[in-house]
Automatic annotation (TrEMBL):
Pfam family for this entry, one: DegT_DnrJ_EryC1
One Gene Ontology biological process: polysaccharide biosynthetic process
PANTHER family: DTDP-4-AMINO-4,6-DIDEOXYGALACTOSE TRANSAMINASE, TRANSAMINASE
UniProt keywords, alphabetically: Aminotransferase, Pyridoxal phosphate, Transferase
Membership in a protein family: Belongs to the DegT/DnrJ/EryC1 family.
Cofactor(s) this protein requires: pyridoxal 5'-phosphate
Keyword Transferase annotated: yes
Source species, domain of life: Bacteria
Catalytic site positions: 179
UniProt protein name: Perosamine synthetase
N6-(pyridoxal phosphate)lysine: residues bearing it: 179
InterPro entries listed in its UniProt record: DegT/StrS_aminotransferase (IPR000653), PyrdxlP-dep_Trfase (IPR015424), PyrdxlP-dep_Trfase_major (IPR015421), PyrdxlP-dep_Trfase_small (IPR015422)
Organism this protein belongs to: Actinoplanes digitatis
EC assignment: 2.6.1.102
Length: 374
């Protein structure tokens, strides 16, 4: 089965991990700080490494002090963790509809969803294409809310020449194997404001504080540490940070290959009946995590099944978040975001990863053309 996504791991990556295993540090050692500093050079803002992308979202909401009584406005066209981590902190998630072409959070819909209880507006850079952050910044600022970017798909992307990581108050990344780079499991939170970064760092480290200036009882002894606010153990180990640092050295090459593959899909699939291709706005330089096409005329399920039967692992990204039973049981109803639901009904992700060969891509295109033209 040709997968829709796959990691690229080289001998250099293996040696980096082996070197970490041979060292004195398997976790919370020097490679964590190294990886965070290297991430900052890409993201444009200081970063805190965490154990996965879901933990990154949970950490970002906690750093923003989201809790009971607060509302978080976000998109339903995302992996459920964008919403569920806010709900788990006691917030009410308010889903706003998406733009018809990019499937990113629609700033006008987000603005209409704002209430006096709104404390965060969370966008998602769907498939690697940045959301409309300048407009969303105005929405968040007018509401007195923090702006959060779920950039799980988008490390390496830019918006009006500015790197993802500088566009929101808090930005989260995922380093799952199918993402633009991998640490096996892993993620990070970038923050443009020192206080948010400090709270994120404390939260991912069980809330522990060692700085004498912040201790309530500073004279206990050199061993002393305190927990002024609860946190969780979301630390990313040295071993996985070593893999991440090695992967970051190839990020530009990863982006170049993904861009080439996306442009090749654009050319090979142009004009195929019953098929819509993903858009790229003029101001965006996306690092494509997904290549999401839209299958028209109600044929998405048929195309999915036939492509899978042909050994091509297409995928659907994603079920609208409020369709999940956990949100249905909270009273969320289908039909509330019709643009997102229409997008979901047609969406199909074609294989896209660095090691995808031209011949494999030709196979994908031929199979898809054959099905749609039959």
């Amino acid at each position: 089965m040709l997968p829709y996504g796959r990691q690229n791991v080289t001998d250099a990556d293996v040696e980096a991990v082996a070197a970490a295993l041979r060292s004195d540090w398997l976790t919370t050692g020097p490679r964590v700080g190294d990886f965070e500093r290297e991430l900052e050079r890409v993201a444009g803002a200081p970063c805190v490494a965490v154990i996965n992308g879901t933990a990154a979202l949970h950490t970002a909401y906690a750093a923003a002090r989201i809790g009971p009584g607060d509302e978080v406005v976000t998109t339903p066209m995302t992996f459920v963790a964008t919403a569920s981590t806010a709900a788990m902190l006691g917030a009410t998630v308010v889903f706003a509809d998406v733009e018809e072409d990019t499937a990113n959070l629609d700033p006008a819909a987000a603005e209409a969803a704002v209430t006096p209880r709104t404390r965060a507006v969370t966008a998602v850079d769907y498939a690697g294409h940045p959301a409309e952050y300048d407009q969303l910044r105005k929405v968040a600022d007018n509401a007195g809310a923090v702006l959060i970017a779920d950039a799980a798909h988008a490390i390496g992307s830019t918006y009006h020449g500015r790197p993802v990581g500088t566009l929101a108050d808090l930005t989260t990344f995922s380093f799952f194997p199918t993402k633009n780079l991998t640490t096996g499991e892993g993620g990070a939170v970038a923050a443009t404001e020192a206080g948010l970064l400090e709270r994120a760092r404390a939260f991912r480290t069980v809330g522990l504080v060692r700085d004498p200036a912040r201790l309530r009882h500073p004279d206990e002894g050199g061993w002393h540490q305190e927990v002024p606010e609860f946190g969780l153990n979301y630390r990313l180990p040295d071993v996985l940070c070593a893999l991440g640092s090695s992967q970051l050295r190839r990020l530009a090459a990863f982006k170049a290959r993904r861009t080439t593959l996306a442009e090749r899909y654009d050319a090979l699939l142009a004009g195929v009946p019953g098929l819509r291709l993903p858009v790229r706005r003029a101001w965006a330089d996306p690092m494509r995590h997904l290549y999401p096409v839209r299958i028209e005329d109600g044929r998405r399920r048929e195309v999915y099944d036939r492509m899978r039967a042909a050994g091509i692992g297409v995928q659907v990204n994603y079920v609208p978040a409020y369709w999940h039973p956990a949100f249905e049981d909270l009273g969320y109803a289908r039909g509330m975001c019709p643009v997102a639901e229409r997008f979901y009904a047609e969406q199909l992700s074609l294989p896209l990863f660095v090691d995808l060969t031209d011949s494999d891509q030709d196979r994908v295109v031929e199979a898809l053309r054959t099905i749609l033209e039959s």
